[in-house]
Each structure stands twice: as C-alpha cells, then as structure tokens.
Write the structure tokens for this entry.
Amino acid sequence: MADSFDVVVIGGGPGGYIAAIRAAQLGMKVACVDDGSRADGRPAPGGTCTNVGCIPSKALLQSSEHFEHAGHAFAEHGIEVKGLGIDVKRMQARKGKVVAQNNDGILFLFKKNKVTFFHGRGSFTGGSAATGWSLRVEGPGAAELVARHVIVATGSKPRALPGVAIDNRLVLDNEGALAMAEVPKRLGVVGAGVIGLEMGSVWRRLGSEVTMLEALPAFLGAVDEAVAREAQKAFARQGLAIHTGVAITSVKPGKKDVAVAWNDAAGKAQSATFDRLIVSIGRVPHTAGLNGEAVGLKLDPRDFVDVDAECRSNLPQVWAVGDVVRGPMLAHKAEEEGVAVAERIAGQHGHVDFNTVPWVIYTAPEIAWVGKTEQQLKAEGVAYRSGSFPFAANGRARALGDTTGFVKIVADAATDRILGMHVIGPFASELIAEGVVAMEFGASSEDLARICHAHPSLSEATREAALAVDKRALNI
Ligand code: FAD
Ligand code: NAI
C-alpha cells in the first residue's frame, strides 16, 4: 500500500528541502526524497550546495584565507607568526564537520516541520494529476508513494569536457577539487568561472602554482567591466595565471600528472603538465534516474525540465525548481523557487524576480552584484547614471587593511531608480544585500544616499557610491 502525500519533493538540495519545509508550514502532508549519502551510508540531505558546493567551498576558502593572512597580512599588524604550517587533512576534517552539521540540521528541520524523509532515489512510475502521481523510492528508505503534487528538485551535475574523463584523482570536478588531501604543486584549472576562481584561490593560498585556462576572450564576461578589470589585476597580483581565449586541444592523464595542450588566443600551440587538473566549465541539469519518460515529463532542448515562469512543468501538478530548470544556478535562487512553488500549491502567489537575485564570487577580493551591468544597459539603450566609491577612501577598509575595490551604483537617468549594484572588495557578499533590498523596494540612488549608515563601516562606501551618482560624494 503506497503512502499518500499532498506534496512529494524529489531532491533534498536547497530547492527541494526548502520547498518541503514551506509546504509543511502551509499545512500540507509532505515527503522529501533524497539519494545523497555520507561515507558511512547515513543520509546527506542538502544536495550539491551542502555536500560538494557552497558550504564546503566556503569552509576551505575560510581556512585558506586564515593561512594566507597568517603568512602575509599579520606582519603588518605587528603580529609575528613563526613556524607557520598547514595540515590539509585537518583542514578537510573541519570542512567535513561543517558539512555534517548542515546535513544534520536539515534532518532536524524535517522532523521539526513534520516532513517525512525518504533516503533513496525517487522516480516516477505512472499515475496522473487526477489519481495522484505514483513514485518509487529505491535505496535504504525504499517505498511506494502517491503524490497530489510533485516538485522535481534534482539539481545539476558538472558539464564534461568532451573526451576527458573525470577520475577525481588527477582530473577533478568540484567534488575532487574540494577533497584534495595534499596541496598540488602545479594546479591546472579549465574554466575561469565561479568554481575555477574559488577553487583556484583556495589551492593558490595553500601553495599551488595555479594556471587557469578560459575559453572566452573576456575574463568574467558577465560581470561589470570595471569590476572584471579590477578582479583580473588583483588575481594577477596574487599569482593566479589566467589565460583567456584558450582552446583546449588535448588532456592526457599520466601516472602522476596530466599533460594539457591548448591553442592560445593568438592560435599558438601551448602545453603544460599539471599535478592535478580541475575541470569547471559549467553545470548541466540532472534528471537521470527520475524516469520522467514514464509520465511524459518534458525537457527543453538543453535537457532542463521545461517549466513556465511559475515553475509549472508540462504535467499538471508537477513542478520543478532550482538548478534543474532555467535561470541562474544558485542556491538562493533554488530556495526562492522552492518557497514560491509551495505557496502556489497552497493557493498563494509566490513570486521570484531574477533581476534581484544577487551573485557573489567568494574570492579575495569578493565580487558581488545585483541587477544590470552598465554594458547590459548600454546594449538595451537605457539611459543611466552611475556612481562609484573606492574602498581606499573608506576608513573601515583602511583599518581592516583591505582597500582593494569599490562599490558602484547604477541608476536610471530619468527616474533615479536603482538598476544595479556592483561591488568588488571586502565583505562584498554582505554589502550586496543592501542593494537587493533597495531594488526590491524600488529605491532611488537618492533614497540610499539619504539613509544614515554607521561609521566607520564598509557600508558607507555604498552610501558614497549612491551620492556619487549625483556627483556629490563627500569623502572623495
Ligand atoms: P542540488 O543542490 O543539486 O540538489 C539536488 C539533490 O537531489 C541532490 O542531493 C541529488 O543527489 C538529489 N537527487 C537527484 N536526483 C534524485 C532522485 N531521482 N531521487 C532522489 N534524489 C535525487 N550557489 C550559491 O548560491 N552560492 C555558492 O556559494 C555556491 N557555491 C558553489 C560551489 C560549488 C563548488 C558548486 C558545484 C556549486 C555552488 N553553488 C553555489 C551552486 C549551488 O550548489 C546550486 O545552485 C544549488 O545546490 C542548487 O540547488 P538544487 O536544490 O536545485 O539542487
Ligand atoms: P561558470 O559558468 O561560472 O564558469 C565556467 C567557465 O568555463 C566559463 O567562464 C566558460 O566560458 C568556461 N568554459 C566553458 N567551456 C570551456 C572550455 N571548453 N575550455 C575552457 N573554458 C571553458 O561555471 P562553473 O564555474 O563550473 O560553476 C557552475 C555554476 O555553479 C556557476 O555558474 C554558478 O551558478 C554555480 N556556482 C556558484 C558559486 C557562487 O555563487 N559563489 C560558486 C561556484 C559555483
């Protein structure tokens, strides 16, 4: 006899587990199915984000930043460090502990909210919206389920470089890049995107010589041009060798290292041998094992689950959220869609505005933005004004000893409504929230400029950038 639920969520990443909690809060009988497992076989809900993405990468970024500060920045503060060393195994064990705390936290939240958790692979077996969708769970939590509504939140997996097998020994995807037990002397990275820059930064700080091979001619092409230029300068200073306009011609793993050949931007053949190679060239939707074919679940030409603006699939009462559908592949975008879908199922009006989804790259300097870049506005023919303020002129940044970068506010020339905020510098990941709030409330740059900001704080740079839109910054 199958268990019946109002909502079954397939996938327990940030899209899925948050959808399950919100649906349960709204009074529905909810189950969440997730196949992630820890090394000892216990469930590991939280998806890519918790297990091999956001959380472990930020744990390693933090550890490696402490190491870098101890080695390079402390001296300036008069702090002497002698005998500085690195124990990568311990660093990795700490990362593992942080991940496990998050896994356990999600299991606790399921209990608290009365979400029934099934550990295993969920797949469609048949049914309809009228009779309820039939699902099977295979694995430790094997079960047969019937659901009035199904939310597919099966996430994404790394995009493969054609002809290059990931062995997570020499040629690594995100899982391998996060799990190295020692610091490779020579680290190659194919793809200078978000993962490449974050992982490249971790291992460079720990001592690797890092070479990044990026296909596109422009570095960080989607980012504000001035931010990308500042980032490229900062990363070059740190010793990240970033080559753009590269076409990889061969990747040959040997016994202990990997030989990589490429044509450079001028078409000249180049080659290098690396102790490890990270391949981070984007991610693709993950629907294998879902058996969507059994019910006719439609995928789009890029294999994402085909959904409308409200995350409805082609099947009634089957929804999809997060990385498995169009839009930015970000944990908080997945969460927002999960909440919105749960609310729509409950008859409410959930809403997600992609234009106010913030982006953050957790390098040093951090890079964050929301809304439109100047180059996008130019392409769209929108008249705008922009104002920037450098951290070099901010007292708190000077006290921190971290004055790289700036804040930029972009506002509509006619209405002064804020259209975008771009930050490169200390705590950009936190500062960007003010821009998101301002944009959500339809604020003008004048509104931001007239808000009292604490002194001394990095957020004063945001206020000054807003003042600079009207050419009246006070501290520069
Ligand atoms: P996922 O998190 O991928 O979760 C899907 C879950 O479903 C997985 O547990 C999977 O095993 C399970 N599953 C799949 N099929 C089935 C099935 N048939 N039955 C049962 N379970 C199934 N985003 C940010 O916003 N900030 C960051 O700092 C950040 N850092 C990242 C760092 C790295 C290295 C990577 C790789 C990604 C990072 N991301 C970050 C992206 C973020 O991880 C994803 O956008 C997010 O995890 C997507 O959530 P999701 O719920 O859609 O899917
Ligand atoms: P990405 O899209 O950020 O970067 C991939 C890079 O690889 C691009 O610059 C692309 O031009 C390049 N590339 C593609 N094919 C190539 C080839 N054949 N040779 C060389 N370069 C090639 O994807 P990435 O870094 O893999 O990350 C996947 C996604 O995960 C991100 O887009 C983001 O959505 C998410 N993520 C988010 C993070 C955050 O929010 N801080 C951190 C890490 C990942």
Q: What stands out?
A: The chain has three domains: 3-157+284-352, 171-281, 356-469. The pocket of flavin-adenine dinucleotide (ligand 1) is lined by residues 10-16, 33-36, 47-49, 53-54, 57, 121-123, 153-156, 174, 195, 286, 289-290, 322-324, 329-332, 334 (CB under 6 Å).
